[in-house]
Design a protein that fits this description.
- This protein has 140 residues and is mainly α.
- It has one domain.
- The chain is built from four helices and no strands.
- Helix 1 runs antiparallel to helix 4, helix 2 runs antiparallel to helix 3 and helix 3 runs antiparallel to helix 4.
- 32% of the residues are buried.
Length: 140
């Protein structure tokens, strides 16, 4: 199950990295009209990356404390992710209701493809569940 969690975590990271690149390339880090606070975005990314490294070390060493540490890191990652999702939904709805005119600056997160957001979220939930089950010793 630890390898399944690793695969899910890497899949989640790929989707997240794509969205981070999209957000940055559309000026998200420069503030402007983005509804995603820069510290939330980079905090989510940094904690997820550190957690992934901890999980990789866990897979190699099989130290139970590392599994729980990785799970502990996932909790604020998930909270920050839900925060960003809640702030992204109105941006997505605005895009569906009326596309931004050229003189109106669109939030950087408006450019996130819905399938990427959905797959990232589903993979993230899968990751949290698999990491928790592994830390609990279920499926060994």
């Amino acid at each position: 199950m630890d390898i399944a969690a690793l695969i899910a975590w890497v899949a989640t990271a790929l989707g997240g990295f794509y969205m981070l690149g999209t957000w940055l390339s559309h000026g998200g880090a420069r503030g402007g009209t983005s509804r995603l606070p820069v510290p939330v975005v980079f905090g989510h990314f940094a904690l997820a990356a550190v957690g992934l490294v901890v999980w990789i070390v866990y897979v190699v060493t099989d130290e139970d404390a590392l599994a729980w540490t990785a799970f502990g890191l996932l909790l604020p990652v998930a909270l920050l992710g839900f925060t960003m999702l809640a702030r992204w939904i109105p941006v997505h709805r605005d895009r569906a209701a009326a596309p931004a005119s050229p003189e109106q600056s669109a939030p950087a997160e408006r450019h996130f493809p819905v399938p990427v957001v959905a797959v990232h979220g589903l993979a993230a939930v899968t990751t949290v569940v698999l990491v928790l089950l592994t830390a609990l010793g279920i499926g060994e």
